[in-house]
Amino acid sequence: MRNIPEMLKTSLRKYSSHSDFSEYLIAFSVIAIGAAICFPLRLILGTSSIGLILLMLVALMALFLGRWPLLFAAMLNVLVWDYFFQEPLFTLGVYNLEDLFANIADLIVAIVFVILITRVRRSQAILRKSQERLTILYNFLESMNNAKSIGEVVRISEGGLKQHFGQEAVIYLKDKNSRRLAGRPYGNSGLHNPARFSVAGNLFFEASTGNTGDLKSEAEDITFYPLRDPRETIGIIGIVLNTSLTSDEDKIILLKSFITIIASTLVREITIEKDIEKGLLEHSEKLFQAVLNSVSHELRTPIAIISAAVDNLKHIRTSSETIKRDQICTELESASNRLNNLVENILDMSRIESGLLKLNLQVCDIADLVGSVVNDLKPELCCHRLNISIPENLLLIRADVSLLRQVLINLIRNAIMYTPEGTAIEINAVNESSETISLSIKDYGPGVPEENLEHLFEKFYRVPGSKSGGTGLGLAIVRAFVEAHGGIIRASNDPLGGLKIIMKFKSGI
Question: Is the CB of residue 158 less than 8 Å from the CB of residue 187?
Answer without folding.
Answer: yes
